Amino acid sequence: MAPRRGIKFNHRNGHSSGVDARRSSFSDISEGASQPGSPIGPKSASGSDVALELQEQPISEYEKKKQTFITRTIWTLVMIGAFFGAMFMGHIYIIIIVTAVQVVSFKEVIAIANVPSRARRLRFTKALNWYWLATTMYFLYGESVIYYFKHIVLVDKVLLPFATHHRFISFMLYVIGFVFFVTSLQAGHYKFQFTQFAWTHMALYLIVVQAHFIMNNVFEGMIWFFLPVSLVICNDIFAYIVGITVGRTQLIKLSPKKTVEGFLGAWIFTVIFGVLMTNVLMRYKYFICPVNDLGANLWTGLECVVNPVFVPHTYQLPIWFPYFKSFSMAPMQMHILMFATFASLIAPFGGFFASGLKRTFKIKDFGDSIPGHGGITDRMDCQFIMGFFAYMYYHSFIALYKVSLGGVIEQVITGLSPREQMELVKGISKHLVNQGVITEGVRLPVQL
Amino acid sequence: MAPRRGIKFNHRNGHSSGVDARRSSFSDISEGASQPGSPIGPKSASGSDVALELQEQPISEYEKKKQTFITRTIWTLVMIGAFFGAMFMGHIYIIIIVTAVQVVSFKEVIAIANVPSRARRLRFTKALNWYWLATTMYFLYGESVIYYFKHIVLVDKVLLPFATHHRFISFMLYVIGFVFFVTSLQAGHYKFQFTQFAWTHMALYLIVVQAHFIMNNVFEGMIWFFLPVSLVICNDIFAYIVGITVGRTQLIKLSPKKTVEGFLGAWIFTVIFGVLMTNVLMRYKYFICPVNDLGANLWTGLECVVNPVFVPHTYQLPIWFPYFKSFSMAPMQMHILMFATFASLIAPFGGFFASGLKRTFKIKDFGDSIPGHGGITDRMDCQFIMGFFAYMYYHSFIALYKVSLGGVIEQVITGLSPREQMELVKGISKHLVNQGVITEGVRLPVQL
């Protein structure tokens, strides 16, 4: 943990320095130090900066750019390889990876707000952080397990009470932590302890909860996990490539290396990539089917009734359209435009947010687990909000509420009173009239 | 807002001073100042403290206690009166009060982290806080309205798309705020802006989300709102009365006025109060029925099939038990013990948490809206966690998973195709004809 807080120089300065004209007291010191002779003010006169300048001087700007590019590319490929390996081996491996990312990111993020000298005197602060994490994960995993494995959980005698009282148990676990936190408050440390409390909750919300949505996407079908993740990675790579190739205009002060050209250029490439990738993935039931068998992998495959968004649909063109009368396309090819656009125009703000945080705490990276990339959190910053979006978009526009007609009829006849049954008939016919399915309302000769 | 930050002396010192031997740098200055001659250290040598000492000296300890008691009692009665008025007039008035409390508490809590000089330079900070509130409330109210008024919302042509895409719309509203926050980040203000972000989210979570559970309790039946609220108030009053009567041992450093005797004594009184109050409330369907008619009030009443927890049940006693063979009791009389215990032993920690926050920010009260009580938040601090508990307990142990008409309509409209919906209408009407509820089948002019 020691090197994290110090000034690190990992060959990632690019053309950034000098752009950030109005340098704030929170700006990243190492970036200022990379350009000898630039007007960096009194801040960089510290010992470590001088050491960095001496070390950096012989390497040219071009050399550094090249080195950065190579290191990042190699590690990007390594990560992509591991990622594909896990994905082909089965959903459970991806779940494990996402869980690991979740825990490491949480650790990285709570570490930056930690003041070791204070934490040492307060024995329980660290334990409490992990307790909150455990409680939150117990709650979230429980929710998913209950939702996706109802048919197993609700039939099991031992699991049933945990399932039916899951939220209450989670709540009481949380309350125990809360009471413990309040009793552990020590005079003279209030500010530190409340900051820890707030910070841990922010980390839980920004990382653990959002990463959990990514996990639920896996359960809905590998494509809902893979597409968002690959779109963000693709966008990141193309923003970098387009940026260093034609980038001139700075996009945002927070991330001085990001350019408007890279931002917009990457959008175009991400859309193209998304359309092509969807076209490929749609052919494999392993990707488009929800997880109904946790033992499945790419070779065994999965079976399901395919969601209509993946089934080609014939769209009629207007009468005045030359040559073509109609075209055929799966609705998913339209939806992917929304995914690609979110990944290109909104998800990067997750990264800017993380950059802002790093500047606030005057750190270069959240950690140093991935060479050339920084901490896990540095690579995942845009993934969290993207996964959340994918979850929301999927459930709002794509998911089918698998309800069987027979099941509904059973519920209605056994669970509703005759009066309610009539209300139902009236309500549904009104809905059918509204939707233009039938022309006239229903006349029920009431005889209650 | 000006008087909030200053040192206020509102006659509430009681027997507290002198107990808190190890006085921290975060301790409440005004409490130290109330006892002239006590060893308060160099901290209280500031100008305002001297002024307070001069002002306070002529009033005796007894006089102050009496004044405190009178002011608090009067305002407690006023609040109880308003509260009962609203409760008898109808659920909608209680919803309005809870909403008002929610908004004012949020305002009070975000105000204490505000640094006016900084906020003035950053135009959007305040607007953004209110934007988060609006988004959160849109999301939460929408959820409740959709849940409790499905049968209306889902049949309405205009409301339907808002209902089916509610979470996505809320998410996008949140994302807009998030992107706006990131773009509004200004060099030199990062720390302030991120603190505001974290603090606003904490306030949303601790106040707005928790208060929302209280609102859902109202919809489940007035008793689920009234019991938790009155148990906390009762506990608070008895902790105060027992505390000033026989209190000797300090309970927690954070709230020096709280005594172990008051804490435990109030528990006993709260249990007794809860049992008696339940016994009374159970007789009124207005209290125990869920809100199926928003126009209902105490005089019109409500009608429903009563939840079995309110129906007396005969419990057999062991064979060796003298004189009595069995006794009759509604299960609710057992549940109330849990409610009363939570209100007595756990809910006060919500108050201690708030005390800790106040000490951290060196304020006496969150506001000054209620004379003798402080801000709304000062009075509500234990209510939030209690309402959350009541919600969780109710849904885990008391709610019946009955098939609701709204639930079925939701399933049908979102999950079945129009053709299946028509099949359902036909099937149910046929069933109603078979049962002799209606004389003739339904004629649906099919036009698919």
TrEMBL record, chains A, B:
Instruction: List locations, semicolon-separated.
Output: Membrane
List every stretch annotated Disordered: 1-46
Q: List the InterPro entries hit by this protein, alphabetically.
A: PC_trans, PC_Trfase_euk
Top-rank taxon, per record: Eukaryota
Question: So where does this one cross the membrane?
Answer: 69-86, 127-148, 168-185, 197-215, 221-242, 263-282, 332-354
Pathway the protein acts in: Lipid metabolism; Phospholipid metabolism; CDP-diacylglycerol biosynthesis; CDP-diacylglycerol from sn-glycerol 3-phosphate: step 3/3
Q: Does the UniProt entry include the keyword Nucleus?
A: no
- Which reaction is this enzyme known to catalyze? a 1,2-diacyl-sn-glycero-3-phosphate + CTP + H(+) = a CDP-1,2-diacyl-sn-glycerol + diphosphate
Concerning its family, UniProt says:
Belongs to the CDS family.
**Gene Ontology CC:** endoplasmic reticulum membrane
Q: Which Pfam families match?
A: CTP_transf_1
Set out the biological process GO terms recorded for this chain's protein.
CDP-diacylglycerol biosynthetic process
Membrane topology per record: Multi-pass membrane protein
Keywords per UniProt: Lipid biosynthesis, Lipid metabolism, Membrane, Nucleotidyltransferase, Phospholipid biosynthesis, Phospholipid metabolism, Transferase, Transmembrane, Transmembrane helix
Indicate what this protein is called per its UniProt record: Phosphatidate cytidylyltransferase
Please note every region of biased composition (Basic residues). 1-14
Q: Which one of the record's GO molecular function terms can you name? A: phosphatidate cytidylyltransferase activity
Organism of origin is Amylocarpus encephaloides
Q: What class of enzyme is it?
A: transferase
The catalytic activity of this protein is classed by the Enzyme Commission as: 2.7.7.41
Polar residues biased stretches: 26-37
